[in-house]
Amino acid sequence: MTRKKIHLRTIGGAVAATTMSALLAACGGTSGSASASATVTTGSTVSSAKPSANITIAEPLQSFGYLPLYIAQKEGYFTKRGLNVKIQTMDTSASGFVDAVLNGSVWGDIGGPEHDAYANAKGAQLRSVANVVNVSNNYLVARKGVNTSLPLAQQLKGQKIAVSFYGGTPNVDLRYWLNSIGLTPGKDVTLVESAASTYFAAVKSGQVNYVVTSDPQLSQGAIEGIWTQPIFDFAKWFGPYTYSTINVPQKTITNDPSQVANFVAAIAEADNTALTNPAVSLKVAEEVFVGASPQILKASYQRAVADKMWAKNALQTDAAFQTDVKAITEVGTYQGPPINPSSVIDNQFLEVTNAG
Predict the structure, then answer these.
(1) Whole-model pTM?
(2) pLDDT, tens only, 6-44
(3) Is 49 in a helix, a strand, or coil?
(4) What are the b/e assignments for 304-337, b being 16+ CB within 10 Å?
(5) Same domain for 71 and 117?
């Protein structure tokens, strides 16, 4: 079978960037809470936004889970609120997209809010202001032909598993789950930590028999016979989980709360579109995931809806965040002081949005 390559096109004309060193002082700012002065609803514009404000959001990779962000950009939800948003993909490490926020080269990022906690423990002030992916957007697949009939602990022992870089949320979630079934990474299983773009080659060459992946790559590999359908679903296992949120420096919230409010309102509107409008969702997916067949995109969308990937109105809860905290603490990627949700989760703009 001839495999048609999915081009993960950088959105808004931005180009991929190399990892940037974290300059914590760049996002110190004022730590006080700002109130949203404008009335924000998911279907309205807000006149207090600065006209044509240019905003760049960093993402660690292009993911079907980020579809609400892409919808907000492609369908004009940002534009009607006075925001010109570009999205820049930074997939060179587990923290490159966060480093870009810390050194001020981008306005914010989409990623795990635990990265805010990592940075805040070192003196930064990052906040999660809206939810995008509400479950652990990861799935374990096996190379086509591998015997998957055995219990997973027995099946995986002695094997190599391709997964994201150490510290990335997929890596954390895999380690946490492996520990729960009695397997120790580095002892019972070997984690091949790399960018998602390497997974097809790793499986086809026989370097690994298992991969932790997400859509649309997951559906592409399954449809093209490279690997199986998921043999383990992290989304269902973890339940509600603040997996990928919009994260910005506290000083941005303090200095321009109306701009943040408008961004959050656009994301909330887009979350609801992703949940309820397959036609628009798939149209945008075709624009973003260039080369992906309608079959791949439809399978990706159906899985996202079935797994309750997106939260209505971008709501983020302390309970869902605590799932994230428990994973990073038990795995050991976070070794700082106890994390109070209020030190990371800032719902003030969501509260205004959902009151509208």
Answers:
(1) 0.84
(2) 433 333 333 333 333 332 323 333 333 333 333 344 444
(3) coil
(4) beebebbbebbbbbeebbebbbebbbebebbeee
(5) yes
